[in-house]
Design goal:
Number of helices: 4
Strand order of the largest sheet: 2-8-5-10-3
CATH architecture: Sandwich
Radius of gyration: 16 Å
Helix content: 10-25%
Number of strands: 11
Strand content: 25-35%
Order of helices and strands: EHEHEHEEEEEEEEH
Oligomer: single chain
Shape: globular
Largest sheet: 5 strands, antiparallel
CATH superfamily: Jelly Rolls
Distance between the termini: 32 Å
Length: 186
């Protein structure tokens, strides 16, 4: 089951968990209600080589995901590792959903709570599948294990174009805030 919490304001290593003291956990229902982030559990084998294809195919069909690939993020598997991690951790939006299924390793997606602009950290471990809505401010980082393997899903041809903050006038951001009942400039 996914874990999520409000982050502290520390500038310590991004790979640390950054929990507030006292801890401010975010329940799954609250995460979806506040941010629009969706969560699914997909059983994955211990070695990450197989997963519940029936359950995953139903989600793919229901949501129209027609393309799938795999990303393997580690120092020895990702060219320009340090540069890419900095790039992933830069706050941005996308004009489409961002969908990830963790099959091995672990990492964090941070999303902005649209009403307060506070960061909520979502920990992904094998079997966690999240769907970030188009227009949500977010970023990604590895945790201190420095490894994740994830499946990525797209509707149609894959497009991964980050639009760095500020992007408040971008149509995806405007739609996101409207769907979350947040007034622009609030």
């Amino acid at each position: 089951m996914v874990s999520a919490w409000y982050m502290d304001k520390s500038d310590a290593d991004q790979r640390e968990d950054h929990r507030c003291n006292p801890d401010r956990p975010v329940r799954l229902e609250e995460l979806e209600k506040k941010t629009g982030v969706l969560y699914f559990t997909i059983p994955v084998s211990e070695d990450g080589s197989s997963y519940d294809e029936e359950k995953l195919n139903k989600i793919r069909k229901d949501r129209g995901y027609s393309y799938q690939d795999e990303v393997d993020i580690a120092r020895d598997t990702l060219p320009n590792y340090e540069e890419k991690l900095k790039h992933f951790f830069t706050e941005h939006i996308h004009s489409d959903e961002e969908i990830r299924l963790c099959v091995k390793g672990s990492g964090y997606f941070d999303v902005r709570e649209p009403n307060t602009d506070d960061w909520i950290r979502i920990q992904l471990v094998p079997g966690d599948m999240i769907i970030l809505p188009a227009g949500i401010y977010h970023r990604f980082t590895l945790d201190n294990k420095n490894y994740i393997k994830a499946l990525r899903f797209f509707v149609g041809e894959p497009v991964w174009t980050p639009i760095n903050r500020p992007a408040d006038e971008h149509p995806a951001r405007v739609d996101y805030l409207k769907n979350r009942n947040v007034k622009v400039g609030a």
